[in-house]
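can u do me a favor
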């Protein structure tokens, strides 16, 4: 029989922030591999557009307006997503925002709280609710599940002027490790992905800055910006049974930037 570990037929993946950028890149690859896809985002128009795009791959899709910084919306969102899709096998806690400041000394408490609310509270609530569903499923004789937190190189490299953002991403790595240890007994694995410099709306100002093109991108060994599609393979792998023994890890996708 052919080895088909990356066939995701029958599996359901939830991607927060799945309506564009890295989230959509991951969702598209998983849909192409046969997974049914649920996406969450705050912009309903973008959610619908992305859902239509994903549906073209012949899978079931469900788009829901959820602000991950709101606990009630996340709790209800998970209940409704499971009800609509029947189950959730993998969750990519990807929704994030990237506010910095001219300097740490000028970073306001408002910025700090705003970034924490989406990037850390949002991941915490999304994964806690997802874990509850997976554990319940396991107790009913259907173990397994893959939790993925999208962190950043900012978690492990000095991200000047981004103390709040960097702290949330470091927190995501720690959350994934804690979850990996606690829930391995249910067949649930938890990993973090650390993107490098990726061309999305989040980095639009850096993309438009000539100094960035001259000084930063040449330091990427692969010599280009990363694209949302560059995350497709890892998403399919982590959503598939091929990654059954992969847990608690931090997976860097940065074109070699962090080792150069
Ligand atoms: P984008 O800005 O392109 O997309 C962000 C996504 O998150 C959108 O789908 C957006 O949808 C959603 N989102 C934002 N806030 C919320 C919220 N409160 N509730 C629900 N959804 C929300 O970003 P990227 O694709 O670049 O980033 C994705 C992840 O990757 C983030 O966690 C980011 O920190 C991380 N990352 C990105 C890097 C890069 O270079 N681009 C580098 C390292 C990490 P909507 O607008 O509809 O709410």
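np, heres the sequence
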């Amino acid at each position: 029989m052919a080895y088909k570990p990356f066939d995701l037929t029958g599996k359901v993946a939830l991607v927060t922030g799945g309506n564009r950028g890295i989230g959509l890149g991951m969702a598209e690859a998983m849909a192409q591999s046969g997974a049914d896809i649920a996406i969450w985002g705050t912009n309903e128009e973008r959610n619908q557009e992305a859902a239509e795009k994903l549906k073209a791959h012949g899978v079931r899709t469900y788009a829901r307006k959820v602000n991950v910084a709101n606990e009630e919306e996340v709790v209800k969102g998970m209940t409704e997503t499971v009800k609509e899709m029947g189950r959730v096998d993998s969750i990519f806690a990807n929704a994030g925002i990237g506010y910095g400041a001219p300097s740490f000394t000028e970073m306001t408490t408002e910025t700090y709280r705003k970034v924490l609310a989406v990037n850390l509270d949002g991941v915490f609530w999304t994964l806690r609710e997802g874990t509850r569903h997976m554990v319940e499923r396991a107790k009913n004789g259907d173990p397994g599940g893959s939790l993925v937190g999208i962190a950043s190189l900012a978690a492990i490299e000095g991200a000047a002027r981004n103390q709040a953002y960097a702290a949330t991403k470091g927190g995501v790595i720690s959350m994934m490790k804690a979850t990996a240890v606690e829930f391995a007994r249910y067949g649930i694995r938890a990993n973090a992905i650390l993107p490098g410099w990726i061309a999305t709306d989040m980095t639009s100002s850096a993309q438009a800055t000539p100094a960035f093109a001259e000084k930063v991108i040449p330091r990427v060994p692969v010599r280009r910006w990363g694209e949302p599609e560059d995350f497709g393979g890892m998403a399919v792998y982590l959503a598939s049974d091929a990654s059954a023994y992969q847990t608690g890890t931090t997976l860097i996708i940065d074109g070699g930037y962090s080792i150069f």
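The two ends are 42 Å apart (CA to CA). hope that helps!!
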